[in-house]
């Protein structure tokens, strides 16, 4: 009987957590993705300059992750922004400013043009279907 009580409690707490996360995501979905994109651009700016002088494994892994995920986050945020705008076009005027900011994030920084030479040579993979 005691085991069942713990199982029900853990299932209930899991459901409450899922509901809480779903509410947070519905309120902060585009805003959170814009902030994450901005954070990744800042990481790329700082570590992009340092990668010439520092060859630490942790900094290289963080830089590689930020480089790989920065474009994905900006594209996903633009997609979410456009689908949200189609549902309620007059809900939030501030969202109209986020699209140009995200497009600027897709332009990448001058401090890191590519993580590796192969990325520069294979740039066409980004535009192929």
UniProtKB/TrEMBL annotation:
Keywords linked to the UniProt accession: Membrane, Transmembrane, Transmembrane helix
InterPro entries recorded: DUF4220
Signal peptide interval: none
Domain DUF4220 residues, every copy: 64-126
Recorded superkingdom: Eukaryota
Keyword Cytoplasm assigned: no
Membrane among keywords: yes
Transmembrane segments: 30-48, 57-77
Protein name (database record): DUF4220 domain-containing protein
Source organism of this protein record: Rubroshorea leprosula
